[in-house]
User: Which sequence fits this backbone?
């Protein structure tokens, strides 16, 4: 088996730890390369070799390597060997098996190695990237990508996803974006969109009012959000590439938030009228199909199950906000959370097995996950500060959330078990209410 | 690009013209799947929707207007009422304030009021929007029991989105857990 050592280590570590990521319906080795403390896989990412004749004007050699390093580091599964320790010269040595010396890499402690080359032609770049097993002196995988020079980070993200695929059997999630609410240092709340590494940042709204609760359509092409730009809060569906926007408002009252179902067919919307908030089922064009809840209380924050058949939501029908699950076909409802007197913003995991939510602990808020069957919740963040608004990665292995642990609210990423909490690049203001996109092309 | 700008300009202008003619499609009349505004992510598109709504507020102005204009929040003759954390029931002090507000409204029968529900910044935004709606409604219901016509009272929730006090402590949070009463002048013609 190629990259035997890596797999052996990954397997061992997986056995040693509690993280088991069995994915239904798939075969092969499944696991997370994760350990308590120092059990990260040591890997080196060489700057790429310029295979063309021109100068590396776009600094692609290091730019692509830097992006891969950022992604691997962010995953928490790798220890990337510091570039300052690298022995060989990336522009002189080869990038294919047999044209470089594995000893240059084993000497500095790397067990995995990423090398590659690129050729720029006009505004396009062809990039080849390879993952090697240093101990076996073998190539594990090689890929070739062609794209715009300015989009070189996307190529790097794709190969980082492939590296994660080689180690775990499931591709990574680095070619995704986060939509979030930001004050950008001002007093308005606007929707922003950016990659996990903060690149390709883009401001979706600029209406100088309050814009809230972004969420993605399953095709990753549109964002649904709540806005006060027409004075009353309404839902808006914004198509990213065309800039086209559709507004949804109920017959009576107003919408406070909503989510599109994973099958793309429906919208679950929180509608408020006469002080009471309830969950409504709408078609994709915003037409009311029926009310899913009809209570004289607070029923908010619907989140779809991956099969689009159930909704997690928050209700205060017990006297305090708690997470419930509702079967859309039968309207049958069951309560999920019982500990604590404030459990809100449920987010159903893409693997279907757990629900993440925000819970109050003393005077603080923390991120929890709980089985969809109920049971004991797991607290993932410390209550030394507030952490709110969890959103799952498309593969269910990570959670991004917002926290004020560094003063202002920033976005943080952690593994789904709460390990390796890392701050993401922000906007300079308060960044809240993140929503993780599906995998993008 | 020029064509795109033109489309946006035409879209925005047609909204303005509709508004001026008094036949702007009401946002609340039915689900509106039509393109409301061909907004694009340019900073310029910020002003849309502002003109058609300005007529409905005056005096101290809604919290949203004050946010837009960057003014500090000032209150009118009607006093704010305050709530406990995650509560929308009326405390004794809130009831006596509401009685005073009702007296003022009886003396000023032309005045219409928009009641704003607000929350402190703790907890989840969407839940707080719903909680703010409950607070505004609780205030409205009590004013109605005190004899104020329901037609004079409307509600809106801003959740935790427009806070009055920014410090992370209980006295500040309490100031933010409020219902605010904004006087809307009655329309001249009607």
Assistant:
């Amino acid at each position: 088996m190629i990259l035997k050592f890596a797999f052996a280590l990954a397997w061992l570590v997986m056995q040693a730890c509690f993280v088991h990521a069995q994915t239904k319906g798939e075969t092969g080795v499944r696991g997370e390369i994760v350990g308590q403390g120092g059990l990260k896989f040591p890997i080196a990412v060489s700057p790429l070799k310029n295979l063309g004749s021109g100068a590396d004007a776009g600094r692609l050699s290091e730019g692509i390597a830097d992006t891969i390093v950022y992604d691997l580091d962010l995953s928490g599964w790798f220890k990337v060997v510091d570039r300052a320790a690298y022995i060989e010269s990336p522009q002189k040595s080869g990038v294919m098996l047999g044209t470089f010396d594995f000893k240059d890499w084993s000497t500095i402690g790397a067990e995995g190695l990423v090398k590659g080359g690129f050729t720029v032609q006009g505004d396009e770049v062809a990039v080849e990237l390879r993952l090697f097993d240093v101990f076996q002196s073998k190539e594990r995988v090689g890929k070739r990508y062609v794209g715009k020079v300015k989009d070189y980070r996307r190529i790097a993200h794709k190969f980082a996803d492939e590296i994660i695929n080689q180690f775990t059997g499931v591709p990574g999630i680095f070619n995704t974006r986060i939509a979030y609410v930001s004050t950008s240092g001002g007093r308005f709340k606007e929707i922003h969109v950016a990659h996990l590494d903060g690149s390709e940042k883009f401001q979706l709204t600029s209406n100088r009012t309050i814009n809230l609760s972004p969420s993605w359509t399953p095709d990753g092409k549109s964002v649904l959000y709540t806005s006060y730009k027409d004075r009353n809060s309404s839902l808006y569906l914004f198509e990213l590439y065309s800039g086209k926007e559709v507004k949804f408002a109920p017959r009576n009252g107003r919408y406070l938030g909503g989510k599109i179902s994973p099958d793309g067919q429906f919208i679950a919307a929180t509608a408020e009228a006469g002080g009471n908030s309830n969950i409504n089922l709408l078609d994709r064009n915003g037409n009311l199909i029926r009310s899913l809840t009809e209570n004289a209380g607070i029923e908010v924050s619907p989140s779809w199950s991956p099969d689009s058949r159930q909704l997690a939501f928050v209700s205060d029908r017990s006297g305090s906000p708690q997470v419930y699950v509702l079967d859309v076909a039968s309207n049958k409802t069951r309560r999920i959370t019982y500990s604590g007197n404030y459990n809100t913003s449920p987010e159903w995991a893409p693997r279907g097995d757990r629900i993440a939510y925000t819970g109050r602990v003393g005077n603080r808020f923390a991120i929890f996950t709980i089985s969809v069957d109920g049971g004991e919740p797991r607290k993932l963040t410390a209550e030394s500060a507030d952490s709110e608004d969890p959103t799952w990665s498309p593969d269910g292995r990570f959670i991004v959330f917002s926290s004020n642990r560094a003063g202002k609210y920033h976005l943080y990423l952690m593994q789904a078990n709460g390990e390796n909490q890392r701050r993401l690049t922000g906007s300079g203001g308060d960044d809240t209410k993140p929503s993780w996109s599906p995998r993008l092309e | 690009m020029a064509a795109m700008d033109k489309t946006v300009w035409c879209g925005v202008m047609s909204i303005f013209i509709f508004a001026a003619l008094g036949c702007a499609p009401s946002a609340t009349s039915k689900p509106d799947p039509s393109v409301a505004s061909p907004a694009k992510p340019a900073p310029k598109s910020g002003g849309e929707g502002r003109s058609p709504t300005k007529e409905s507020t005056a005096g101290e102005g809604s919290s949203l207007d004050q946010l837009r204009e960057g003014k500090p929040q000032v209150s009118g003759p009607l006093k704010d009422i305050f709530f406990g954390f995650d509560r929308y029931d009326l405390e004794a002090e809130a009831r006596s304030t509401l009685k005073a507000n009702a007296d003022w409204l009886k003396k000023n029968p032309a005045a219409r009021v928009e009641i704003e529900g607000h929350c402190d910044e703790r907890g989840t935004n969407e839940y707080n929007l719903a909680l703010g709606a409950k607070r505004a409604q609780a205030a409205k219901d009590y004013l109605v029991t005190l004899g104020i016509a329901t037609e004079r009272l409307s509600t809106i929730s801003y959740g935790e989105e427009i806070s009055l006090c920014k410090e992370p402590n209980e006295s500040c949070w309490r100031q933010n857990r409020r219902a605010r009463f904004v006087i809307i002048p009655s329309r001249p013609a009607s």
In short: Chain A touches chain B through 69 residues (CB under 8 Å). The two ends of chain A are 31 Å apart (CA to CA). The CA atoms of residues 268 and 281 of chain A lie 5 Å apart.
